[in-house]
Write a structure and sequence with these properties.
The chain is an alpha/beta fold. Helices cover 44% and strands 16% of the residues. It contains eleven helices and ten strands.
Length: 267
Amino acid sequence: MASSDQDLVPVLDKDGVRLTVDDAIATVTLANPAKRNAQSPALWRALTEAGRQLPGTVRVVVLRAEGKSFSAGLDRQAFTPEGFDGEPSFVDLARGADAELDATIAEYQEAFTWWRRSDIVSVAAVQGHAIGAGFQLALACDLRVVADDVQFAMRETSLGLVPDLTGTHPLVGLVGYARALEICVTGRFVTAEEAVNTGLANLAVPAGQLDDAVRDLASAVLAAPRDAVVETKALLRGAQDRTYEEQRQAERQSQARRLRDLAGVGD
C-alpha cells in the first residue's frame, strides 16, 4: 500500500497530511516521520479537510503513517508559552472565555469525527508508538490493524489533562470502563497482543506485513455490496444506544429497506 500511495497524485498534501484516492479506496497518510508524526492544530485542520475532499466513489479510507511511529501525540511545542506560529498558545486559550475555549476544542475534534461516517469504513494501520492524540486518532477509525511493535498509550492524564479528541467513547466501548480508566490514568503502554485480546485491534501482524494486511481487509470490505455495508454499519453503531427491543426493530427496518431495494420496490 505504501508504494501505490506514493505513486498516486495527492488530492491533498499539506501540514503533514497527504490524501490519495484510488477509486473506492482513499489513503490518508501522516507524512512527517522526522517528528514522529506529532500533531498540531494545523495537522488537525488538514485531516478535517481530507474528510471533506473524499470523492463519492470512496468506500474505504485507510489511515497510515510514514516512519517508525504512527504518531507520538501532541507536538510538545503546544505546551510552550509561544505555542505554534500563527496559532493561539494553550496558555492563551486557557485565559480566554469558556465559549471560545469550547469552540476551539470542538474545531480540533472535527479531525477525529468524520472517520465513522456511515458511508465509509475506516481502517487505521498502526505501527510503533501511538501516543495520546495518536492513540485517539487510531480510535477514531472503525477498524485497527496493528504491527507487532505497536505501543498505544493515553498520556493526557499524566500531563494533568484529559483525553479530549473523541477517544474516550470508543475506548470504553471497546475495552470496558474499568480497563479504559486504568489505561488512561496510568498512561501505560498497550502492546499488540493486549490490543487484539481486548478488542482494541482487529488484527496484529509483523510490521513488514502491515500494508498487505490492511489491503486484504479493504478488499474484503469492498467485496460486499455498498448499501448493505452502509446499513450494517449504521445498525451496529447505534446498537449500544438502543435497548434490545429497539435494536430488534432497527434490524427489521434495515432489512425491509434492503429487501425492497433488492426487489426493486420503492418505499
